[in-house]
Amino acid sequence: MSGEKAVLALLDEKPIRAASFIVTVYGDAVEPRGGIVWIGNLIDVCGAVGISETLVRTAVSRLVRGGQLVGERSGKRSFYTLTPAARVEFSLAARQLFSPGDQDRWRFICLTGESVEDEIRHLERHGYARLTGDTLVGLRPLPPTLNDNALVFDASISEGETFLGKFAADRFTLAPLAESYRAFINRYSKLTTGPITGSDALSLRLLLVHDFRSIVLRDPNLPRAALPGDWPGTQARRLFSERYLDWSVAADRQIGRVFVNESGPLSRETPATTARENQLQTYSA
C-alpha cells in the first residue's frame, strides 16, 4: 500500500489526542534538534494525521500551562521550546524508548508526606509496583519529580534468583502490558508500504513512536529471568527498531527540509539522532 494509505489505516484503527501527539513530535523530532520549533510545523505535522489547527493551538496552550513548553515570538512567528524540566523528562523517556538496556539495579522506595497516594500512582504509571502501603519496588530510573521526602534503597539479588519470576508475577501487572505489546506487533507487522514520500514517512514514524511510547513508558524493564517465557516485549522492540529505521531516512530528510526554529531550518541529523539510530541497530540485528 502507499504511504498515505498506511497512515490512514493506522488512524482508522486508533485515533490520537492532540496534546499527547505533540509530546511525541517533540520527543522524536524536536528535542534531539534543540527543543524549539515553529508552531506552523506542529500544525502541519498534526494536520497530516487528522488533528485540526484549533486542537493544536489548544493543546499547545495546555502544555504551556502545564510547564512543558514556553512560547516566544520572532517577527510574526511563534516558537515553542521545551522547559528545562521537560527536557529532563523527555531525556528519560527517550532512554526508555531507544536504549533501555539490561536492568539489574532494583530500587525500593518508601514514601512519606501528604501526597503519598498521588506519588504512588505516578510511580505505578512508570513501571513501579506497590509492595506495602507506602513502599514500591522497581528498576526504572527515578523520575525527576520524585517526592523530596522519599527514602530510596538500591539493591541487587544475592540469592534465590530462581524465585524472581514468581516475585515479579505476584507484584507487577504484566498481562495488560503483554497484550499491548501483542497488539502493537499485530498492528505494525502487517503494515507494508512501497516507496513513500517524506511527509508520509514522517507521519508513519511519529505514529510508530506514539504507539510504542504509550507501552514502554509503562514497562517496568524487568530482567529476562523475571519475565514469562513467551514475553512479547522483545519481539515488539525488534519490530519497532526495524520500522523506525526503515522510515528514518525519508522522515529525517523531511524534518530538515521543513522544520524551523527562530534561527532557521532544523538539522536533518544531529549526534543525538545518530546515537538513537545506532542503538536501534543493535535491537534490529
From TrEMBL:
Disordered: region residues: 265-285
Compositional bias (Polar residues): 270-285
Official protein name in the record: PaaX family transcriptional regulator
InterPro entries to which the protein is assigned, alphabetical: PaaX-like_N (IPR012906), PaaX_C (IPR013225), PaaX_trns_reg (IPR011965), WH-like_DNA-bd_sf (IPR036388)
Gene3D superfamilies in the cross-refs: 1.20.58.1460, Winged helix-like DNA-binding domain superfamily/Winged helix DNA-binding domain (1.10.10.10)
BP terms from Gene Ontology: DNA-templated transcription
Top-level taxonomic group: Bacteria
Domain Transcriptional repressor PaaX-like N-terminal span(s) in chain numbering: 17-83
Domain Transcriptional repressor PaaX-like C-terminal: 173-253
Residues that span the membrane, as ranges: none
